[in-house]
Amino acid sequence: MFARTALRVVARPVTINRTVRLGYATAATSDPSQFSASAVEAMNPRGVEISKAQRIAEDGFISAIGNTPLLRLKKLSEETGCTILGKAEFQNPGGSVKDRAAYYVVKDAEERGLLKPGGTVVEGTAGNTGIGLAHVCRSKGYKLVIFMPNTQSQGKIDLLRLLGAEVYPVPAVAYENPENYNHQATRYAEARDNCVWTNQFDNTANRQAHIETTGPEIWAQTNGKIDAFTCASGTAGTIAGVTRYLKTVSEGRVQCYVADPPGSVIFGYVSSHGKELGERKGSSITEGIGQGRITANLQPDVELLDGALKIEDAKSIEMVYRCLDEEGLYLGASSCLNVAAARDLSVKLGPGKTVVTILCDGAYRYADRLFSKKWLHEKGLWEAVPERLRSYAVLD
User: Fold this and answer.
1) Pick the residue with more confidence: 270 or 173?
2) Is-catalytic flag, 98?
């Protein structure tokens, strides 16, 4: 799989020789005896090269996870004078960066003998980790049980059930409350044989997924020519794992910044060098990121971070529309928070730098809000949408 990543460098358009193109057109549309496979391959040399390296995903879904492209964000790169690259995690087979963590926490349970054939996986989640686990569990023959706050949309519940999960929506209460969905998931798993709670926030197999896959992929794709990395923290597996790898392989040269939405304590904690954790106040429209505590995934690597970037919801919404219009990328709010952070970091570091971030997932699961005029007005975010781009808000 790693060979695939080494080849997935940002590509430039290939100019096909006119004679080859005409020869291909003639061979493809007339006498089959004149058909030339080499002429066809010449039309897409890079695609053929990558396909040969990829070979066949012998283990099906799980072996298709990772090795996602690194995309140059053209407009923002031109504006800042930097090269801003986004790791296209929406191209994972389950649609998000969480496919990586989902696979690794299940694999870890198997390797430690906690999960045997026919077993049950339990997690407390309302988002992409649950979707990733649903795919992984179906591909491996495990049952999946999900506990989630009952404030989540019916669409999320329906999707998880469609993917084969058993879903229990429970009252939304604070983590300190024993009836919090995570604690209920824990008790469910502890009461059953061959049943494991994967504990995505504090299970460091999550972090290990990004040390072993995401970090090395980014380093190989940039040929080591990366100056900075930034992304948000939810469970913190991605920011911690990628930071640990890049700091190690570059001998500390690559700068790493955590991006944080409103209502989270991570910005204050990192900015104060671990002296002030603070209390979680307020909230954000972004999902799955921001925290009220330091998770076990983040704790080992928090001192490696060079700083933190506070990204307001208005910036994230603006970037949702800009990425769609300027880059043709249909991204969720957390992805666009990361892009906004990469832009701010590029300005901070100055021209000529290469900055990488994570495009967590697409906007498909959030379209009923992100492109709804009513919802944007209710959240006080309508003015954040650039006037020239408001035509994209097609939902009432």
Assistant:
1) 270
2) yes
